[in-house]
Amino acid sequence: MSIAEVDRRGELLRAAASHGATIAFLQQGDPSLSAELTGLADAGTGTITLVGVRLASSGPAQSWLRRIAAYWWRERAGHRPDLLVATRLADSLDAIAAVAPETRPITGREPGLTSAAWEEVTRHRHQVNVCRGPRCTAKGAEGALRALLHRLAECGLGDDDVQVLQTGCQFPCNQAPVVNVQPDDVWYGKITSAVADRIVTEHVVGERPVASHRLPRHRKEGAIRGADSP
């Protein structure tokens, strides 16, 4: 369901194998849910049961699993298997077996992927990009993200004020966890929960970058990051 599961692919594969299942990702991981459903349907599978796994403290709700599955089912040409979706998310790998039997079928009448609330770009002044690459995640990016979101909420700042994005690798991996704040072009390294709190209080609200964790910017003439970058 979330980026946290992408980073724990190996654990998910082992858990899926123990249940005779496959894995797919709702976001930022391959195979996507739509691609995996298509592969199973093309193979003639008659019934597919979807169990959402969310190991992070935040991420899409279970309703999004139904939305995406229903969209695929409505758009599917040819054989459409019966789709059953667990009524709640598994919050640990051990919980999958308990969650899987409680399901509801996809009928095609589920809400679509659009909404009036999602029509316009928000008026945010800042965009805060939190690296969730493998090194940053291993070194505590999720805790920093939680602290960041908590402090933003305490300051009464929502999507129209600050857009918070989780990204793939941002490259200065030795500085993990890494955060950058745009359009100020300010980069931070070795972010802890306490530093994340300061980024909101001092930088986002106070307009003063946190000097102690700010990273210098180096631009090399003609340098291009290739496919072999970390």
Q: Give helix and strand order, one letter per element, not per position.
A: HHHEHEHEEHHEEEHE
User: What portion of residues is helical?
Assistant: 25-40%
Enumerate the spans where pLDDT stays under 50 for 5 or more consecutive residues: none
Average pLDDT metric: 93
Query: In order across it, which strands form the biggest sheet?
Result: 5-4-6-7-8
Strand-pairing-aware structural class? alpha/beta
Main sheet characteristics:
5 strands, mixed
Number of DSSP strand runs:
8
- CA-based gyration radius: 20 Å
Q: What is the terminal-to-terminal distance?
A: 24 Å
Q: Determine the number of helices (DSSP H or I, runs of at least 4 residues).
A: 8
Residues in β-strands, percent: 5-15%
Tell me, briefly, the overall form. elongated
Structure, explained:
The protein is α/β, with parallel strands linked by helices and 230 residues long. 33% of the residues lie in helices and 14% in strands. The protein has 8 helices and 8 strands, in the order H-H-H-E-H-E-H-E-E-H-H-E-E-E-H-E. The strands form 2 sheets. It has a 5-stranded mixed beta sheet, covered by helices on one side. A 3-stranded mixed beta sheet has the order 1-2-3, covered by helices on one side. Helix 4 links the parallel strand 1 and strand 2. Helix 7 crosses helix 8. It is elongated, with a radius of gyration of 20 Å. The two termini are 24 Å apart.
Give me a quick take on this structure.
The chain has 230 residues and is of the alpha/beta class.
